[in-house]
């Protein structure tokens, strides 16, 4: 995957700016479970995902996590360059959910280029606006949707991502995604099982009635 594929405004950059980006980008491979970026004190740089899957999450003082969005092929992660985002007042961590190949562009290089290039600066703002929309979507879910609906939505999303109705995921991991205690997840999954929606085994959630699960959560994220 070429670097220019990540930037629809690539041709609006000067040859010098293109060369600076290309020369600064470092290819890196991270294993599943690796925490690539850990809050505001960590400034890894801009992440451009070649292949794989990352999740961005925040963690409470008590250690509870909640996933705010995920990143896939050709996505760009800005929060890993937190030192160039002075307006961000909360710590975001980035973890690899699957083995992931990516480019890393140092924060100082990217910050310098956005100061020089209006197209690159505008594109960066578009990415930030998109991430903000995802965070607002999450807040809407937490405030206004019942937990059974949120859990159903998560299971449906996981099934789509994995291409399987058999989800190899622990109840603790589900709780980390949804910002909910494992015990709450366990109770609701047990209820789903009693209703014939899922079948539970150690580290596995098998969706047994996809249609009824979709009826429980008929909403779709844009």
TrEMBL record:
Residues passing through the membrane, by range: none
Protein origin, superkingdom: Bacteria
InterPro entries: cNMP-bd_dom, cNMP-bd_dom_sf, Env_Response_Regulators, HTH_CRP, RmlC-like_jellyroll, WH-like_DNA-bd_sf, WH_DNA-bd_sf
Pfam families the UniProt entry points to: cNMP_binding (PF00027), HTH_Crp_2 (PF13545)
A GO-annotated cellular component: cytosol
SMART domains, A to Z: HTH_CRP
Ranges where the HTH crp-type domain occurs: 145-211
GO MF annotations, alphabetized: DNA binding; DNA-binding transcription factor activity
Keyword set includes Transcription: yes
Keywords: DNA-binding, Transcription, Transcription regulation
CDD domains per UniProt: CAP_ED
Name of this chain's protein: Crp/Fnr family transcriptional regulator
Organism: Candidatus Acetatifactor stercoripullorum
């Amino acid at each position: 995957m070429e670097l220019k594929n990540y930037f629809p405004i690539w041709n609006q950059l000067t040859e010098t700016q293109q060369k600076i980006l290309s020369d600064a980008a470092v290819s890196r491979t991270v294993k599943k479970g690796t925490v690539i970026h850990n809050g505001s004190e960590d400034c890894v740089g801009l992440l451009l995902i070649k292949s794989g899957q990352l999740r961005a999450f925040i963690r409470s003082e008590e250690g509870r996590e909640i996933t705010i969005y995920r990143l896939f092929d050709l996505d760009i992660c800005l929060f890993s360059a937190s030192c160039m985002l002075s307006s961000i007042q909360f710590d975001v961590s980035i973890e690899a959910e699957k083995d992931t190949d990516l480019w890393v562009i140092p924060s100082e290089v990217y910050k310098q280029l956005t100061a020089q290039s209006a197209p690159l600066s505008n594109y960066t703002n578009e990415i930030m606006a998109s991430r903000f929309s995802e965070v607002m979507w999450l807040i809407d879910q937490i405030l206004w949707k019942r937990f059974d609906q949120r859990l159903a939505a998560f299971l449906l999303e996981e099934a789509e991502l994995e291409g399987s109705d058999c989800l190899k995921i622990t109840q603790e991991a589900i709780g980390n995604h949804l910002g909910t205690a494992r015990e709450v997840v366990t109770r609701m999954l047990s209820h789903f099982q009693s209703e014939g929606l899922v079948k539970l085994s150690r580290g596995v959630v098998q969706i047994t009635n996809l249609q009824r699960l979709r009826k429980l959560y008929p909403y779709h994220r844009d």
